[in-house]
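Methods — Computational structure assignment.
A single polypeptide chain was analysed. Its primary sequence is given first, followed by the predicted tertiary structure written as structure tokens.
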Amino acid sequence: MNVLKYQEDVAASKVSSRWLGEVSGLVSPPDVYVKIFDLMESPTATADDMGQIISQDPSLTVRLLKIVNSPFYNFSSRIDTVSRAVAVVGLRELYSLVVAVSAVKSFSAIPNDVVNMDTFWRHSIYCGIISRLLAKRCNVLHTERLFIAGLLHDIGSLVIYNRVPDIAKRMLDTANGDEEMLFAIESEELGFSHADLGGELLKQWTLPESLQEAVAFHHQPGGAKGAKMEAAIVHIANVLANQSELGAFCEVKVPETEIDGAAWLATGLKKDKFDREGIIGEAGIQFVETASLFW
């Protein structure tokens, strides 16, 4: 593979839409999500309208109702219709949830010899859980959206694995389980990173800009403009996930990585009082139940 060819594809932005678009069938969630997005743009759309569209996909309906009736949301009464889920969760929140569930399903089907997909999703889910735990500590509203940001933070890596598997394998071998090093290697060799790709992918999926930035800047939280808190939370969560036995990137537990100073500043968390092991342990307790919902 000629890396220069891929660098030339980068035009006005670091990641061209063509680079993503040429991954046949890989980056497009089901048609139902496009219809849902159209509904969100309509001033007359109702929860019943969205419920009718989602109900056309029985598998998606079952998974969404399973999630909203789980401790993930912890509602006091059972929710038995999608329209009711829209009413209590919110249209945009449920839309993000639809995309996240669809992405996990779509990408999990990728035949790939570069990485173990089970390991990939363990790391992603672990990062999502820690992101939500941190969001609660930072008094962030709607903490579930931080779970989704954490869940999708490495989604750009799957595009790299699919497009340039030989190069990806070499970069992974060089990084030897150190995701911060991998980020630097990708930027040097490809001209962009998995974080850049992930942010662009979420943009194509028309997810909220706060999620786009959280993913795009999870290695450099100081670079985020409108979502510094979100990017900082996912950054810290990613560092902690990589220090866990269960959620480490590439199944390699890395030594304690320095958390970017911008993340402490954005979140208000105190470095000298931060309980890494406690948060990692709490995430481990939640992992099994949460993983069964999304994966």
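Note: The chain has two domains: 28-109, 112-295.
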